[in-house]
Amino acid sequence: MSAPIAAPAHYDAILLASFGGPEGQEDVIPFLRNVTRGRGIPDERLEEVSHHYRANGGISPINAQNRALKSALEAELASRNIGLPVLWGNRNWDPYIPEVLTSAYEAGHRRLLMVTTSAYSCYSSCRQYREDIGMALTETGLDGKLAVDKVRQYFDHPGFVEPFIEGTAASLARVRAQLVDAGSPEGQIHVLFATHSIPTRDAHAAGNSVNEPREFAEGSAYVAQHLANAAAIMDRVDSEQPWSLVYQSRSGAPHVPWLEPDINDAIAELADKGIKGVVVVPLGFVSDHMEVLWDLDTEAKETSEKLGLAFDRAPTPSTHHKFVSGLVDLICERTVENHLDDRPAMTDLGPWFDVCNPGCCANFRGEKPVISEIGSSVGRECAPAEL
């Protein structure tokens, strides 16, 4: 596979882009309308699926996590004498990306480098961000006036993986201690690497383009990237420790196939096999947003407790110093000033490319303006001849 690497450029700001989340009970339904826009889902149905936000006061922790990450990035950039301000924009809640781009242009910025809070390759983790920027540039009239590039997907960058190595080892130790306290020191433990389930059609399109199909484990870059990361983590933590990849947070019509197994089903099967403890590693997530706090810390924990299994959930990278430093390294890969030639990766799948091939992680819902794609007419990073 060719791996397009963009030429270093001069940037005048960083855009931290994320999903967004409600910050009060009155925000929940408007937020869910944003997330599901275009699908015609009535408010009554949205209210039925809002319970995990309602149970947390209508507040998703993701915005607070992003504020903390923004501050940590600013501190790391300052410590390296890199004079790039950090802007923050969300896809589904305030501060909205179009408004942030407009404010950036009015402030005099002309070229932004985007870092997203999604590490893996699939439509919702990569292409949808690139589409949202493309649509925002078009809708605000900034296409051709403001350029927005994007760092590579960083699923196997050491800055993302090494915090999971530390966290998994510590979590294993806590579960072993729980089993000792329960009088089962020889009880078997299983590590579950958890990520967001996606439709299988999107999974099979992940990482593949219209002109350069690839072969991946289980037919999906999204799945292969998680499997490779989990293997790299366990090689460093305990190569003899059993582990598996599981999924969570499925939504959508029941007849549409999504990636499986569900984490709760997997826990039940492990209990039937005599496993005494589980370590849950939220491998698909950058921070402890609602789907971590509800689906793992609430539902998966309750399933384990009902089945009598010891349980511990490893932390996400969040603002871990290695993660923050790694994000700044990714920024430096793309800049003329403070440029880093080294592009580290902890699996054989990486380092991932800077500029996507046409149709990568295809959108089955209709074509939209997109950035960071060879041949894109909106926000194109560089022509193929410059690669």
Task: Characterize this entry briefly.
Its EC number is 4.99.1.9. The strands form 2 sheets. This protein has a 4-stranded parallel sheet with strand order 2-1-3-4, sandwiched between helices.
Q: Could you characterize what this model shows?
A:
- InterPro entries: Ferrochelatase, Ferrochelatase_C, Ferrochelatase_N.
- It is found in: Cytoplasm.
- It is an enzyme of class 4 (lyase).
- This is Coproporphyrin III ferrochelatase.
- This protein has 13 helices and 8 strands.
- With about 375 residues, it is α/β, with parallel strands linked by helices.
- It folds into 2 domains: about 15-155 and about 320-385, Rossmann fold (3-Layer(aba) Sandwich); about 160-315, Rossmann fold (3-Layer(aba) Sandwich).
- Helix 6 (about 125-140) links the parallel strand 3 and strand 4 (about 145-150).
**Broad CATH class of the largest domain:** Alpha Beta
> What is the CATH architecture annotation of the largest domain?
3-Layer(aba) Sandwich
Helix content range of the residues, please? 25-40%
Low-confidence stretches: 380-387
Function: Involved in coproporphyrin-dependent heme b biosynthesis. Catalyzes the insertion of ferrous iron into coproporphyrin III to form Fe-coproporphyrin III.
Main location: cytoplasm
Binding site for Fe-coproporphyrin III: 60, 129
EC number: 4.99.1.9
